[in-house]
Amino acid sequence: MSLTPASHPRVTRPQAILFDWDNTLVDSWATIHEALNFLMVAMDLPPWTIAETRERVRLSLREAFPRIFGERWEEARDIYLDRFRAIHLERLTALPGRTELLARLSDEGIFLGVVSNKTGSLLRREADYIGWTARFGSIVGAGDAPLDKPDAAPVRLALLPSGINPGETVWLVGDTGIDMECARNAGCVSVLLGNGMSEGELELCSPSFMFSDCPALFRFLQGL
């Protein structure tokens, strides 16, 4: 399914497509959830349900953890990252159709990049492990730019190697309202892949286009 709102009366073929990482390209909810609950136990806090994790995990650690853990946020960050590093690669899997989508988009001559709120070193480690690093012209994670999503700074950083400026020829593909807000802040086209956004998020930050799966996205792009 695709949606073309009045704000985009003309659809421009993208020169660059930037992807969110977690739960847009790879399945990582179970790993994030386990690492978070390991942290909660260590901090003497009640564990979260998987539904709470899916609802609450949006911002980068440096944005989210001070709000949750206050003055102990750096301690909490270290506990979480140590646990995450110990388990994330063994559970890393590509979401259905993503490997094929990246290959097809690359064949179309489109610049591909990643803009994620996952810590940059972990993000690039996962891209190497899953064999996708060569597909991307840039891989930008949390901490790589002065500010993280939804700020526009990581988008600008991710586009630097391409020489393409943020605008109507750049798509930002993600699964949450943070991704849609980031695209809007950068002046790019926001694209929702899958059904990860809540009704509230959709009302606050409606995407420019919505696609249920990778084949639908690629078919739409081929028609441009």
Description:
There is one protein chain. By secondary structure, the protein is of the alpha/beta class. It has 2 domains: 16-27 and 93-222, Rossmann fold (3-Layer(aba) Sandwich), CATH 3.40.50.1000; 29-91, DNA polymerase, domain 1 (Orthogonal Bundle), CATH 1.10.150. The protein is built from 10 helices and 8 strands. The chain has helices spanning 29-42, 50-56, 61-69, 73-87, 98-107, 120-130, 153-159, 177-186, 199-204, 214-222; strands spanning 16-19, 26-27, 93-94, 111-119, 138-142, 170-174, 189-193, 209-211. A 6-stranded parallel beta sheet has the order 5-4-1-6-7-8, with helices on both faces. A two-stranded antiparallel sheet has the order 2-3. Helix 1 crosses helix 4. The two termini are 15 Å apart. Residues 1-9 have low confidence and may be disordered.
Q: How do you describe this structure in short?
A:
Helix content is 44%, strand content 16%. With 224 residues, the protein is of the alpha/beta class.
Provide the β-strand percentage band. 15-25%
CATH superfamily of the largest domain: HAD superfamily/HAD-like
Q: Give the proportion of residues in helices.
A: 40-55%
> How large, in whole angstroms, is the Cα Rg?
17 Å
Largest sheet: 6 strands, parallel
Task: Provide keyphrases for this structure.
alpha/beta; Rossmann fold; DNA polymerase, domain 1; 2 domains; 6-stranded parallel sheet; 10 helices; 16% strand; disordered N terminus
